[in-house]
Amino acid sequence: MFSCLKHKVGEVLLPGDEFSFQPEDTISLTDTVKPEKVICGPGLRRSGDRLLVSKSGVLRTKQPNMFWVDSQQKRYVPAKGETVIGIVTVKSGDVFKVDCGGSEQASLSYLAFEGATKRNRPNVQVGDLVFSQFVIANKDMEPELVCVDSSGRANGMGVFGGGGLLFRVSLGLIRRLLAPQSPLRAELQQLFPHELVIGMNGRLWVKASSVQQTLIIANLLESCENMTAEQRRQLFRRAAQGAL
Amino acid sequence: MKDTPLANCERDFLLKAIEEKKRLDGRQTYDYRKIKITFGTDYGCCFVDLGKTRVMAQVSCEIVTPKENRPNEGIMFFNIELSPMASPAFEQGRQSELSVNLNRQLERCLRNSKCIDTESLCVVSGEKVWQIRVDIHMLNHDGNLMDAASIAAITALYHFKRPDVGIQGEEVTVYPPEERDPIPLSIYHMPISVSFSFFQQGTYLLVDPCEREERVMDGLLMIAMNKHREICSIQSSGGIMLLKEQVMRCSKIASVKVSEITELITKALENDKKARKAGGRFGFAESMPQERITALKKDETPVEMTDVTETAYDIVQKAEAPPQTVPSPVLPVPGMGQVGLGLQNSWGLEDDEEEEEEDDDSVEEQEEKVTKMEVEQHRKEQSSGDVVEISDSEEEEVIILQPEIPNRGPKNAGSSSDQKGAAKSKKRQTK
Amino acid sequence: MMEVCGSSNVSLREFGCEQSLLSRPDGSASFIQGDTSVLAGVYGPAEVKVSKEIYDRATLEVLVQPKVGLPSVRERSQEQCVRETCEASLLSSLHPRSSLTLILQVLHDDGSLLSCFLNAACMALMDAGLPMSCLFCGVTCAIHADGQIITDPTAAQEKESRALMTFAIDSTEHKVLMSSTKGSFSVHELQQCIAVSQKASEKIFQFYRDSVRRRYSKTL
Question: Exoribonuclease phosphorolytic domain: from which residue to which, for each copy (chain C) (predicted)?
Fold first, then answer.
């Protein structure tokens, strides 16, 4: 039923493109007919019995029947469950205001840290980086962040960022970095030992043993935006040999 | 819109890197970023790329009356626009401290250094002189706007040509470029500004700071100099104490940078001149990088016109002809008459006026000739509603909204007027 | 670029586009039609001033920056035309209480400026990844004194023409989203110009597709 969608996977779509679903002409007699469900991700919208594309990018799919448009945008729009790197801008009473690149500052309660109680407040200063997760993120409400998972553990979240470098890349590159078995990440690992924090909001934080190495990694990542895998491998090879 | 705040870790890292003589983009302490100069199709239009910072300058001229105290000198006018395109922190039409500073510095660099022969801009002494206006637009802010602006401004002034004028007795004629070749401005020297930023109370120094370096710097020193090593203006801001040796060292560095940049500008001007002489293509359109993945160009394309005339004819034919005859008069209430669209009752009932407006709103979105008929019907419906005197205002609203519904949809440009209509009907309901 | 018109020889000047060429804006594009060129930058969805906040959709602001001097009435009316077109195609209700800012900078005006604004705006909005229900493009037609239709006229052709019309056309149904006209013309001529613009828009939409495809070619 969604053959037309599957057909287009990996192709470039533009806003205004649409898919219409007609019931199939032939009904298989052997298979039981069950209603198929399709999950539309970013860039796809349902309108009646049609599916409209609202962003330009490449159509991607994931089993079973998940479709979305992968685009190279820069501006972040908060989504529930995503982990981001935020910058604390205001400390007011019992919430922190955090800038995470969206249209509105997110709030982060001081109780939403591991082990935090009313007495035992976390040590957070204005200008600190927090790696945190969205619990509320929708268009009509103020976004809210937490630094604990559902069982109250930090799970890698919290205040961080002593000595490393923060920089911005496109959201598309972030998704490529976060993809399971990302070749980009594997290649980076082979260069030198380093720490890397990836925020879904397009912010990256890197720390290597020296300033020089930190800068190399940051500049490599910034330049991989528009490169084929082959070009990237060559660049990394040169970096590893110390040519850069 | 606010700018992204600077995180503490960024500040610490930048300062640490500067201590180790490292910069974010791998430059050395005294290195400039890559400078690229391109010209527009007009005379006096220049684009400067300084790394990611991008600036455009356009020179224009007009004849004005001179200032009273300087009757035979032309006027130079500089205007730096901090367009919101360059950075979200810049606001349209607001004079910020930064823009005042930049304007001031540029004026001192280019006007007060007397690099332009303003007396040659005089047409009739005390009556008519040329005013040369330099508009500088910041297109992308990645630090060191001043240097980029000064390079763009002086290059554009060198590139600019003003129309020739002839004076016969009292009459002044400005010749168009087709009749007489326009003439370039006479410029004595080429002042260029070089910025130095200081960190840790002046312990460390960087040339050509980028945006993030500018955010953590303690002080800034701008030196405008020409290639003869004459200092045209010097300004220190940020309130740091500088030693005499530091200023001397900066001026030495500036002289090296200025001679490099001067050479680059001269070369760029020559290249452009050659391209224009050869009659080839030049200007911004030609400077678009073809090899970039984000750029694409398409040659001149013909548009098929085969059946256009027929289609247009068909549409015109299919469309209902506008009513030629005056429709019969409608009597909404005894004692009132209304004919067609032309006559409106002027009995000053408030409700009626509103109805008119609503009609207009819905009309806008359709082709005029088709709607004329519909509006007619529409009005009849409404007016008949009035006669019946419905106490329940809800029914009335249904009548008003209905003809609008089919208009909604993506094809309407005037969605705002749509809303206006809806809002109005709500108002009525509350009444 | 002489267009011999009236027959079957209407053409668009060579056109080009570069996307995301500026580092600061969320989306940017430069669009070139012959010698006319425009640079567009988009910021958003970003924080909105309380005074401009709209509770159910994003506030779109369009700023046109002329090359010389400050924005005047002419620029205001162009801003309005572009804004209304963008509002019709953007799904602004998906980002309520936020601001979208579109800045258009004239780089060179050699005729058909409004259509170049529209094309640059569309490419920049696409680059910014804002949700849109359809794409749009702008086509300018000039009617010469002898009745010939010229598409994408140069400044000289605009000056000689009897009437000038710019249409914004959407990509799904090729309907007219916005029209701006100057001068006098007959109904038949208007329909003819719309039909020509619709034909021309197909070329531009194909170009949009090609350039986006080229852009993503390495990440396919």
Answer: 12-131, 135-199
Q: DSSP secondary-structure letter at B303? A: E
Buried/exposed C192-214: b ≥16 CB within 10 Å, e otherwise: bbbbbbbbbbebbbebbbebbbb
Domains of chain A: 3-70 (2.40.50.100), 83-160 (2.40.50.140), 165-240 (3.30.1370.10)
CATH of B8-287, one of 3.40.50.720, 3.20.20.140, 3.30.230.70, 1.10.3210.10: 3.30.230.70
Lowest mean pLDDT among A33-47, C113-127, C167-181: A33-47
* Test the A interface: residue of C216, C217, C220 with most A CBs within 10 Å: C216
What's the pTM?
0.83
pLDDT band for position B367 (cuts 50, 70, 90): very low
Contact A56 C27 (CB under 8 A): no
Say if CB B385 and CB B397 are below 8 A apart. Answer: no
> What residue in B sits closest to C103 (Cα-Cα)?
B85
**Chain B residues close to A214, C-beta within 8 Å:** 13
Q: Tell which of A11, A12, A18 to mutate to test the C interface (max C CBs under 10 Å).
A: A12
Greatest Cα-to-Cα distance within chain C, rounded to the nearest angstrom: 55
Q: Encode burial over A153-165: b for 16+ CB neighbours within 10 A, e otherwise.
A: eeeebbbbbeebb
Chain A residue numbers with beta carbons less than 8 Å from the beta carbon of C129 are: 55-57, 71-75, 171
Distance between CA A69 and CA A41 in Å, rounded? Answer: 7
B342 touches chain A (CB under 8 A): no
Element (H, E) at B426: helix B415-430
pLDDT of residue A229: 84
Which of the other chains make 3 or more beta carbon contacts under 8 angstroms with chain A? B, C
Domain spanning C15-215: CATH 3.30.230.70: yes
Domain map (residue ranges) of chain B:
8-287, 308-430
